[in-house]
Amino acid sequence: MKTINLSEQNSILNQYMAEIRDVDYQRNRLLFRNNIERIGEYMACEISKTLSYKQKEIQTPLGIAKINLPEDEIVIATVLRAGLPFHQGFLNVFDHAGNAFVSAYRMYTNREHTEVGVRAEYMASPSVEGKTLIIADPMLATGGSMAAGYEALLKNGKPACLHIACVIATEEGLDVVEQAVPEDTTVWCASIDPGMNEHKYIVPGFGDAGDLCYGDKL
Ligand SMILES: O=P(O)(O)OC[C@H]1O[C@H](OP(=O)(O)OP(=O)(O)O)[C@H](O)[C@@H]1O
Ligand SMILES: O=c1cc[nH]c(=O)[nH]1
Ligand SMILES: [Mg+2]
Fold this sequence. Notes:
Blueprint: E1 2-5, H1 13-21, H2 29-48, E2 53-59, E3 64-70, E4 74-80, H3 83-93, E5 98-108, E6 116-124, E7 132-136, E8 139-140, H4 144-153, E9 161-165, E10 168-170, H5 171-180, E11 186-189, E12 191-193, E13 195-196, E14 202-203, H6 209-214
Parallel strand pairs: 1-11, 4-5, 4-7, 7-9, 8-10, 9-11, 10-12
Antiparallel strand pairs: 2-3, 5-6, 13-14
Helix pairs in contact: 1-2, 2-3, 4-5
Bound molecules: 1-O-pyrophosphono-5-O-phosphono-alpha-D-ribofuranose (PRP), uracil (URA) and magnesium ion (MG).
């Protein structure tokens, strides 16, 4: 598995990351979702550089333009609910892509809230057989949601190529995902943070992605 951490190079991504992490700025849900969406757009453009291209002739009103166009059939998958604005960013860029949604949510499995398990219940996905599958989920903490999401999607075929996209990852989560995915998978992230707290939240991270996008849940 190859991991590409986009924050190793300075870019405008740093500004989006600073805004989603900032405890005051992130209170505005519209701005928070918008920043997650544009991180998705930025990452999708980076992934687009790795696709296969074939030259096509495009008839303009004045002549013929030769343009290399992507050939991959893309499916963008996400994990509800925090994944939705991130997914939208990818879809803004890959507007011809198919779309898949998996519900996989973290639940504490002990009274002290120090262990988490993941429950996957719902999936709506086209065939992913032979396609380029991008699974976009903003947080890769324990890695449980991503591994469960990938396993659920395999019910609809074997992708030719797998990209995992997240905003923030941890080394622990990356190790878990590496055990679950094919060797030639690429993980894209905007940061690898040092670790997690006792409740399995990424530190420094930015908090609960789903709640910041959509508000508290019971
Ligand atoms: O790597 P993990 O430890 O599995 O954590 C990552 C998951 O946590 C967040 O979702 P969450 O379970 O908070 O659900 P939500 O989107 O409904 O808030 C995030 O979007 C991931 O799906
Ligand atoms: O820090 C974390 C970890 C998992 N899910 C989140 O939303 N945030
Ligand atoms: Mg959450």
